Amino acid sequence: MSDDLALLQRTLGEWGRGEFWNAEPYAEDVVFVVSGPDAAEYHGISGLAAAWRDFLSAWDDFHVETERVVPGDAGVYALLIRLEARGKGSGVQTDAEVANVIRMRDGRIARLEMFWDRDAALRAAGAVADGQA
Question: What are the angstrom distances between the C-alpha of 14 and each of 19, 24, 72, 129?
């Protein structure tokens, strides 16, 4: 678990600096699930790059700050994140408390799921009992 947390801390530090393109922390067959109105699922490192490109292209002044990493089931973590950005098309400012769920395998991120609902993310990670989020 400590190796997983160290890798996550490095990755989250990169995200906080706006660096989303480092493939090193991810498994070759990583799955990236984006929720929301443009929900999609991407596969592999090339899919990961496309996912970040597609997701980030909708925003100006995009910034994330990780507030907390919550361990869940074995090898699963909920990342509680504050997202601040401005919609490119709408100009609407967004300041949201969101979450990602990370599933680790063999010391790499095997699955990354974005959630707009933190309680749903905590339940998906197994970080809380149903109804206790």
Answer: 5, 12, 23, 31
* Distances 53 to 37, 49, 67, 77, 93 between C-alpha atoms, Å: 16, 6, 24, 24, 20
DSSP state for residue 57 in the 8-state scheme: T
Q: Report residue 30 as tokens.
A: 């990583």
Question: Rounded to 5 degrees, what angle do the CA atoms 24, 28, 31 make?
Answer: 105
Per-residue pLDDT at 44: 97
Q: Answer yes or no: is pLDDT of 101 > 90.
A: yes
Average pLDDT for 22-36: 93
Q: Which amino acid is at 57?
A: S
